[in-house]
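Onboarding guide, step 5: your first structure request.
Type a short instruction followed by the sequence, for example:

Predict the 3D structure of this protein.
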Amino acid sequence: MVDEQVLIEFGTRQDVVLVEESSLMRFQVNLIDPLMGLTWTAPEFDDSTWTFGSYGIGYEAVTGAENLLRTTVADGAFSVYTRARFEIADTSLVDNLWFGADYDDAVVVWINGVEVLRTSQMPPGDPAWNADPSNHESSNGPAPYYEPQMNISALGIPALVDGENVIAIGVYNNVALDGTASSDLVLVPRLSMNRTPTMRYLANTTDPGLGLSWTTEAFNDSSW
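The system replies with structure tokens like these:
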């Protein structure tokens, strides 16, 4: 008898994807302090001098994450700030809002200047341009792995406005003991609304050999 692997989805997924891989954005690469605090997260911030690009963004100095990158930046960046725009005609029709990302090492997300999510690797307080989060490796896969996608409705929906909205995302690099940034930096985000939640599971007819690793946030369940 062989292991049985089954994917069950409850309900019909009705994602309306607002931002994802290949979405256009503007970005600022931070090798030194950009001296802008958190002003760049506000919808009225003038990003006209920033560079155009598309997600995913970052660099890979060795090997691994290159398939995730559509926009490459200078090796050794301590952080990259990105701003993307999306339209919502009527915010009263937004039932829920979700965010996921394939990233390395940490991410903080603002919608119209309101912080709606930060990953667990980030230290508390206002994120500095060189915040030095703990290490988190991206999937390094052939395509982005956005899980776990997190429900940001409580903070995100009140921040939305009818018409144009701005999502500002900072991706932050782990800093080595010698003060240099790590060998890679990756951000591929996914923002969606009106998602019907699904679940994945593995039915075990033999020992899957996973221990409790499957209970952790970092576990990759894409094959379930």
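Each response can be followed by summary notes, for example: Residues 13-196 form a domain with the Jelly Rolls fold (CATH 2.60.120.260).
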